[in-house]
Amino acid sequence: MRTIDRDMDALSAAGVPVYAERGRNGGFRLHGGYRTKLTGLDRPETESLFLAGAPFAAEQLGLGAAVETMRRKLLASLPEATAKESQRVAARFHLDPVAWFQGPDEQQRLPVLAAAVWMGRTIDLRYESWKGVVERRVAPLGLVMKAGLWYLVAAVDG
Known about the structure:
The protein is of the alpha+beta class. The chain is 41% helix and 24% strand. The protein has a 3-stranded antiparallel sheet. Strands 1-2 form a two-stranded antiparallel sheet. A hairpin with a 5-residue loop joins strand 1 and strand 2 (27-30). The longest helix has 14 residues, at 64-77.
């Protein structure tokens, strides 16, 4: 019963109109007619979804196919007019993080690094720095793309 009470308190604190009814047929109830505002996307939200996909970054992380599948599923779930408008916006904007007259860096190990970040696994690195060749065991915290280049953010020695 304590878990239910905590859940009801959390819902109430989040603004969901729940109330308790005492008695033989009592329990917790949701106020009649309540609808969450989190269902359905408005026009700017659907249009921005296709800009936020960042296909370049997803492809380098090994998630290109997953992003494309998600895009198709989102389009299929939208009303026809909204889907057409979202496709129109997506067709008119292209996000290219690589500078002019440069190609993207070869990112052969990026999917492996990304997997280590997502799974919270330590990584043994060997790289060349301005001091020479460095070997380190790091705890990855995240990946950052800056101007088309990927950087690993990690903790060293705690």
